[in-house]
Design brief:
Length: 151
């Protein structure tokens, strides 16, 4: 989880992109500043950025090095939420608690499924999901969570 409360430039942007979820404050700014230094995005930043905002917007960010405001970042899908600086920590903490309350095995496998979606074809993903879902359907987490529907 990334909490961005100021400039996320170059490596800072790349680091934020490596996180599953990103929350920005209204004081944040996002810039792929590498080009202005004669460099390319490090840490797979261009790859991750393209996946998050699409090729056209990522190209604009990487090739022009222009700053992106928090509202534009939200509109583009670069961040999941925007909060006032004084509310950022509480907003991130609420998301962390929400995620921590989820069944760990399902969370882990859901994250793996999201990663595969970026690299595997749809048919391959369906094949993997069959066995994954089968294992989860027999887990204690599922039995416990679904017991409330059997009343």
């Amino acid at each position: 989880m990334a909490a961005v409360n100021g400039p996320a430039l170059g490596a800072g942007l790349d680091l934020a992109m490596a996180c599953d979820l990103r929350v920005a404050s209204t004081a944040a700014v996002f810039t792929s500043s590498w080009i202005k230094l004669g460099l390319v995005p490090g840490m797979g930043g261009a790859h991750l950025l393209s996946r998050a905002v699409g090729a056209t917007r990522a190209t604009e960010m990487v090739l022009l090095g222009r700053p992106v405001s928090p509202q534009r970042a939200l509109d583009w899908g670069l961040v999941n939420d925007v909060a006032e600086p004084e509310n950022l920590e509480a907003r991130v903490q609420a998301l962390v608690e929400e995620i921590a309350a989820l069944p760990a095995a399902a969370l882990d496998r859901s994250k793996a499924s999201l990663r595969r979606a970026l690299s595997l074809g749809f048919e391959q993903e369906l094949a993997v999901l069959g066995s994954t879902q089968g294992a989860l359907l027999t887990s204690e987490d599922f039995r416990s969570a679904s017991s409330r529907f059997r009343r």
